[in-house]
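Board notes (copied after class):
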Amino acid sequence: MVKSFRVISTSAMFLLLGWTVPADSRQEQQDKPKKQEKQQQQDRPAEKQQQPAKPARQDHPQADRQQDQQRQQQQQQAKGQQDQQRQQQRQQQGNAAKQQQQAKGQQDQQRQQQRQQQDNAAKQQQQAKGQQDQQRQQRQQQDNSARKQQQQQAKGQQDQQRQQRQQQDNLSAQRRSPAQVRQQQVAWQGSRAHSWQSEHRTWQQRGGYRGYRVPEDRFRGYYGQDHGFRIYSLPVRYVGGHRRFHYGGYWFGLVDPWPEYWDTDWYDNDDVYVDYYGDGYYLYNRRYPSDRIAISFYLN
């Protein structure tokens, strides 16, 4: 037992020694660099004195690095802000350009719409004008057709009336007695001119027409170029030395003599008509259309 105790004591002593030696060894190893550095500083005191004093910031390299990092961060932030501002400016410029393009596109669209509206309005006006022209042309055609029909009907009626009058005149001429024929010859032969160009005068030369004026509707129904007749079948009489004959409900007399170059039986064979020319009424002979004999209308 005593022996065992000794063994245990010896082992414990060795263990203590083993822990102590390494600890001393570690302490020496840690102190050794410091001693060497201190020795080197003692060996080079002159060099240390010759070196210039370093700035205080070099005594704190970690603080300098932090300041550099902060400065770099600030520069990066400023650069980032500048880049962001430039990007924003570019975006604003791009947006402004887009807005201008959109506004220009809207203006172009509005102008195009206005042009289309103007073109449509012009087309509508042209269409309306075309329709109006077409309607006007149709009305003119209808009016012309109606007028032609009326003229043809009126001409047919006039031709029929003229034919009837001619037939009546022929019958009257056949029924006239030799005394009536002689009376007509005596009546008209006495008013023949010797030089009609110097003897006749127009109503203007006479100072204007002052006799009775026939109403327009009555005049159109019996007188004018379309209403010819022959005098030999009409009643004839003398009033104040002038010969008058009755036609169309009125008496009218010759104020001028009839031209000497007319046939002696013109009142029997020539178609005559009464018309108004400029300043009064005249008797016209279809065989001599350039001659006008002044006449005057009377109610009785």
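Comment from the instructor: The chain has a mean pLDDT of 78. Residues 120 and 177 are 84 Å apart (CA to CA).
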